[in-house]
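Fold it.
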Amino acid sequence: MLLFTFLLQFLTIFISTESPPPAAPASLYLSTDWGQNWTPFAQGLPEQASLSKLVENEGKLYLATDYQGVYSLNRGSSQWEARNNGLPQNLDINSLAVRGYFLAIGTYHGKVFTSIDGGRHWKDPIFNFLGGSVRALHFHEGWLIAGTDNGIYRSADDGMSWQQTGDLIQVNDITCFNGRLYAARRDGILASDDAG
């Protein structure tokens, strides 16, 4: 019993005199000299936010996070603003695409949420990509193109309906270069001259 009392007093002293843990480092940094120096740029973001995608569109930045939603930053501002009205909490976001005020996010659980007002309000997904994540989203020639664990899908109506193209190989990213569409797949890179 005496040993137990001594250990309890020791632990109480150890716990009460221990300094608090240091603040978490910023999750986002800004460089104004082409990457030579970097400063924290996370004002308005949740502490320890895990960032998944950063997209610039018409002078505004949009940022998707894992489990903590979407944020926007106006030109000249240093404060990120949440854009999560209508999104479920703890949403694991993998991808983000922006065209004007239209935003689309793809999730780990195979859903695409859309917003027509710059992320101020979000619509529930109508179509679920069964069996896999939406790893990439890209606007190209009037199409919204999704790279998923089960291949490439295209939507001509801003995510209301989707059609699959090609095979079922996992697609990790999609981009356009010199008018040609490229898809980074698990087994290599594909190129398309007809919007996928």
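The two ends are 74 Å apart (CA to CA).
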